[in-house]
Design a protein that fits this description.
The protein has a two-stranded antiparallel ribbon with strand order 1-4. It has a two-stranded antiparallel ribbon with strand order 2-3. Helix 1 crosses helix 4 and helix 4 runs antiparallel to helix 5. Strand 2 and strand 3 form a beta hairpin. It has one domain: Aminoglycoside phosphotransferase (APH), C-terminal lobe (Aminoglycoside 3'-phosphotransferase, Chain: A, domain 2), CATH 3.90.1200. The chain is mainly alpha-helical and about 130 residues long. About 50% of the residues lie in helices and about 10% in strands. It starts with a helix and ends in a 9-residue tail after the last helix. It contains 5 helices and 4 strands.
Length: about 130
């Protein structure tokens, strides 16, 4: 199933709007919360300009299904950008696990949860035209 999600992200139409700034690494460890609210974002090592889909990874590594729907609706994200973001979240989580397997058990647990959320989200989504 992970391969299907990845291939879907690759088939999604590319970002054809003006490039925008993105953080590129919105992992839970890079988001600082205070009293239940986002207070700061750290680690700008992957900051860049281009497709904002990579910053959507937070939808799968931070939110549940219901929270993800609210997040997407609030941003007004189109299906292609959402698919690319889902692929980015999957890719990052799959790379994270073997790299940090013995040194960052909390991060590995978060990455495993992200993969579960990505697969569950994909299974329940509508079929866009590029997938037919």
């Amino acid at each position: 199933m992970a391969t299907v999600v990845w291939e879907d992200a690759l088939r999604a139409p590319v970002w054809d709007c003006a490039p925008v700034w993105f953080h590129g690494d919105l992992l839970p460890g890079n988001l600082l919360f205070w009293q239940g609210r986002l207070h700061a974002v750290i680690d700008f090592g992957t900051l860049g300009v281009g497709d904002p889909a990579c910053d959507l990874m937070v939808a799968w590594n931070l939110f549940s299904r219901d929270g993800r729907k609210l997040f997407r609706d609030a941003l007004g994200v189109d299906e292609a950008t959402w698919a690319r973001g889902r692929g980015w979240a999957l890719s990052q989580a799959l790379i994270f696990i073997p790299y940090y397997l013995y040194t960052n058990p909390i991060g590995v647990s978060c990455a495993q949860r992200t993969i579960e959320e990505v697969l569950a989200d994909y299974h329940g989504c509508a079929i866009p035209s590029w997938r037919r």
